[in-house]
Amino acid sequence: MTEMTEEIKKTKKGKLERNRIWMSWTFVLIPTLFIITFYFYPMIQAFWISLHTGTGVNLDFTGLDNYRRLFNDQAFITAVTNTFIFFIFQIPLMIILALFFSVLLNQKTLHFKGIFRTLVFLPAITSLVAYSLIFRYLFSNDGVVNQALMFMNLIDAPIFWLGDPFWAKVLIIIAITWRWTGYNMIFYLSALQNIDPGIYEAARIDGASAVQQFFRITIPMLRPVILFTSITSTIGTLQLFDEPMNLTGGGPGNATTTISQYIYNLSFEYTPNFGYAAAVSYSIVVFVLILSAIQFRVGRERK
Amino acid sequence: MFSKKHLFLSASAVLLLAACGNGDDETGDTGDTGEETTEETSGDMNELTVWTWDPNFNVRALEMAEERYQEENPDFSLNIVENSQEDVVQRLNTSLSSGVDTGLPQIVFIEDYRAPSFLNSYDDAFYPLGDYYNTDEFADYKVAAGTVDGNVYNVPFDTGVTGLYARTDYLEEAGYSLEDLEDITWDEYIEIGKDVYDQTGIKWITNDHGDLGLMRIMLQSSGVWWTEDDGTTPYIADNEALKMAFEDYKEMVEADIMNVHNEWDQFIQTFNNGDVVTVPTGNWISASIMQAEDQSGNWGIAPIPRQDMEGSVNASNLGGSSIYVLQGEGQEAAAEFLAATFGSDVEFYQELVTEINALGAYEPAMEGEAYEQESEFYGGQQIFQDLSEWTQEIPEVEFGQRTYEIQDILAVALQDYLNGADLDEVLQNAQEQAESNM
Amino acid sequence: MKNEKRMKRIATYVFLILVSFIFFFPFYFLIVSITNPSIDITRGDLLPGSHLIENFRTMIETTPIGLSIWNSALVSVGQTIISIFVSSLAGYGFEVHPSRGKEVVYNIILLSMMIPFAALMVPLFRLFGTISGIVPALGIDTLFGVVLPYVSTAFLVFFFRQNTKMFPKELIEAGRIDGLSELGIFVKIFIPTMKTTYAAAGIVTFMNSWNNYLWPLIVLQSPSNYTVPLVISAMGSGYTIDYGSVMIAIFITTIPTAVIFFVLQKYFVQGMVGSIK
Question: Which positions are tagged coiled coil (chain A) (predicted)?
Fold first, then answer.
């Protein structure tokens, strides 16, 4: 694509092409102006705030002190560790599940497709209030889940889902997967339509099995969208807030506290320290930058 | 060619925005007129805006106050803006710290634990109210929560006076009565609990390990907090009351008399389901307990246990909020309204008790007849009388600016301690961590 | 062979029904809850009760739920239409006419997506304080103010650019040969071809807008301008929460997104691109 444009540039750098370049900049500039005004500019201001320390409006310029403090802040280090544990298990699990469901629910011959799709998507729109109520209830010590597991002889004693540091993390991962799988499925479902069915036909004639088709055609064709979902999910997980806040309150102790929750606490729950909260926010930017750079690289490599 | 296309593009962008504009116009208009009327009246300040939470409690109380005040001031009205408490905190912080005063209310409710943070973080944002009402007539600890450098910034609202809510039928089953729970220490409380649990198999108490409300109750009954009187220096490692609270807590867990719940809804579920014998907490829990109509007559309220140390009393507090006025246009009108209602109206306090079980910290109100009523649900006990008496005994403590911050540090410490770590070490760590955050 | 296929089909349906049950269960609880009094909800009652009308009445009497649904609808529909159009234009532009300069701009856009919104709130509110001073109709406490930061989002620009990578570029050349302008190609070829991408973006944007919480909370101040999540959040706060009316409010306000999803997912039919080609 790039080569093509460059070629055009070289051969007929005429009026027409100049127009195209102009137009393409217009396409891009309107949204860019909005994003710079409403995100990038506040982001720079947030960085400026992160160089200040104090409570509320009583801020003093302290340079990089806030960033230095991060390295010695036990609560921050725990939050980062927790967030990364969620990230490592959460992202692959959810992406694989979402891919699986989208292919399953994309079969031409499947009946009640619309209903099944809606049901899988439903958790994404079920209000947090309702679902945290029911999750806490289902996963309480004598709740339905423990009873079922004990009935199936999978466990001897009830699992202390909300009170045990390990199981509380598991619960959070279950909850996020349950809530966001259907959401990610939408992106794959829509992208699947853009694959030319002829390619599958040709593969079938060559005797490729369904599994082979999935790995040799579906996955490579969906690569741009998989990259999109993995990066947006990375951002979502590194900014994870709703589930720990509503399900476990970050507990037991601080076993499920996330970076975003810590930012919230620093800004509003404790005496407001916006400078330090902004510094913690920028740590998320750094983490996401590193992780997306890796993902972009992996996503491009096999092109 | 280009200019034509360009024109078309910008034209379509304008059209699009305009189209959206039309869509929004209708509410935009109502919004605008709403704003205008606020601005118009804000000249003579007949309508005051209030930010608060809790539709069944704070909002109802305000509506009742508004109605009473209107009898003398027919043009007066309140614009009550309802959000959750977290949301009020968030909006207030965002507005005050950004320096944008558009839309800020005249009156705002703030939880007592959070008040020192706001008062110290935003100088000159709040309007002093000490001259508008007689602060001596209120429980000292309530007024203290809104006082900075000798200036009183709050009008107290509900007291968080605590009681030991107990199931009298379960107690009887184990051979005890409510009197056995009166004027006891936490150690005695635990001993009785073990016995009742042995006999009935029903848990004695329920708690969320992440919510250190029980510790706050214990500390305040002994007149201390987890910060020193300056409101910022951590007071953890050498804090005898805190140490004792941790030990008692662990004993309850190890004796297996404590049910562990998570979050508010499970807390309510536990006692509504009859899964627990006692609930030591703030009096605002009454309404939730009374939801279980089938348990009527089976509940009673004893004074909260005290710590086994000098100076500790059988009275404490948990939660509760006060009312504040923001500096700016309408501050006097707001202060006058609050002074005439929450600050001095004995009859109003009777209504609060009768209508919504809201208990204020206003001493003269106790003489009213509403406080003498006997509650059928609580076995005929004069609960308002009892709770108000305990209110007067609540020790005054300086909540300081770090209540929730240090609570989070202590929640981790508690977890470590429950898992077998040494108490002194755990508290020493917490002390150091709290100091390093200063 | 035929038998095996049949077994496979049955297994698929059994699996799907099982999975649907898991995904549906909390929603089932929500439906049951709207018929129960508060106390039964916190008790975890999983059977329908007879409290539906009372819950409904409490909700209507104590909350401005109707008005908030109207406000949310305006905001969500407006935001969805505008931001999808503007953002897809950019995603298309970045992918179809790439250049070094645009890559720099694109990276800035992506960067802006990485910071938690909580960190932007105070500066953004300050910015809106300024906007309010100049054009009050776009500023604080207006529905425009809710939409403005989302006229274009990095998320959607990114989404459209990634999907444009799957767009058959031959169609652009074909359009040029037919004498279509660049915008003409976008409107007449790109949009119809990428219908399913637009459907997905529509679902997601509508849902995000409908459920958006933090920014409306900060920017809206008059209850008459409140959107749905603000009203529901206020209902669930206090010493004694009436879960019955909270649940019915949640239930009613969940329906629009579910319907939008159900309608738009019909566009997810394989072979769309092929048929246009």
Answer: none
Band (pLDDT 50/70/90 cuts) for residue B33 is: very low
Report d(CA C214, CA C224) in Å as an integer: 18
Q: Does residue C15 fall inside a structural domain?
A: no
pTM of the predicted model as reported, rounded to 2 decimal places: 0.89
Q: Please say if the pLDDT value at position A19 is more than 90.
A: no
Q: With H, G, I as helix, E, B as strand and everything else as coil, classify residue A222.
A: helix
Q: Is A56 exposed, middle or buried (0-12, 13-18, 19+ CB in 10 A)?
A: buried
pLDDT value at residue B220:
97
Assigned domain for A243 exists: yes
Nearest residue on chain A to C159, alpha-carbon basis: A228
Q: In whole angstroms, what is the distance from residue B193 CA to residue B257 CA?
A: 7
Question: What's A217's DSSP letter?
Answer: I
C138 touches chain A (CB under 8 A): no
Residues of CATH 3.40.190.10 domain(s) within chain B?
41-159+319-367, 162-316+395-436
Number of domains chain A contains = 1
Interchain proximity C254–A125, CB inside 8 Å: yes
pLDDT (tens digit per residue) in A141-176 = 878 889 889 999 888 888 888 888 999 999 999 999
Fold of B162-316+395-436: D-Maltodextrin-Binding Protein; domain 2 (3.40.190)
Task: Say how far apart CA B201 and CA C151 lie, in whole Å.
Answer: 60
Asked whether residue C21 is assigned to any structural domain, the reply reads: no
Query: Domain for residue A186, yes or no?
Result: yes
Q: Nearest CA to CA, how far is B55 from chain C (Å)? A: 7
Per-residue confidence band for B151, with pLDDT thresholds at 50, 70 and 90: very high
Q: Is residue C251 assigned to a domain? A: no
Cβ contact, residue pair A40, C111, below 8 Å = yes
The H or E element containing residue A262 is helix A259-264
| Structural domain total, chain C | 1
Q: Is residue B47 pLDDT above 60, yes or no? A: yes
Domain membership flag for residue C109: yes
Q: How many residues does chain B have?
A: 438
Identify whether A20 is part of a domain.
no
We report the CATH number of the domain holding residue A209 as: 1.10.3720.10
pLDDT at B183 over 60: yes
Q: pLDDT digits over C47-89, tens only?
A: 899 999 999 999 998 889 999 999 999 999 999 999 999 999 9
For residue B358, the chain C residue with the least C-alpha distance is C239
Per-state percent for chain B, helix, strand, coil, to nearest 5? 50, 15, 35
Task: Say whether A136 and B401 touch across the interface (CB within 8 A).
Answer: no
Confidence of residue B23 (pLDDT cuts 50, 70, 90): very low
Q: How close C272 comes to chain A (CA, Å)? A: 6
Chain B residues with CB under 8 Å of a chain A CB are 1-2, 5-6, 9, 13, 86, 89-90, 93, 96-97, 99, 117-118, 120-123, 208-211, 260-263, 265-266, 269, 401-402, 404-405, 408-409, 411-412, 414-416, 433, 436-437
The ipTM value here is: 0.89
Task: Return the amino acid letter for C58.
Answer: T
The amino acid at A179: R
Neighbouring-strand partners of residue B321: B111
Alpha-carbon span B188 to C27, nearest angstrom: 46
- Options 3.40.50.300, 3.40.50.620, 3.90.180.10, 3.40.190.10; CATH of B41-159+319-367: 3.40.190.10
> Which residue segment(s) compose the domain that C94 sits in?
67-228+257-276
What pLDDT does A6 receive?
55
- Give phi and psi for C151, each to the nearest 5: -55, -35
Can you give the pLDDT at residue B119? Answer: 95
Q: For residue C200, what is the domain's CATH number?
A: 1.10.3720.10
Q: What is each CA distance from C235 to A73, A244, B234, B285, C241, in whole angstroms?
A: 36, 21, 36, 17, 7
What is the pLDDT confidence band of residue A24, given thresholds at 50, 70 and 90? confident
pLDDT digits 0-9 by tens, C95-120:
988 889 999 999 999 999 999 998 89
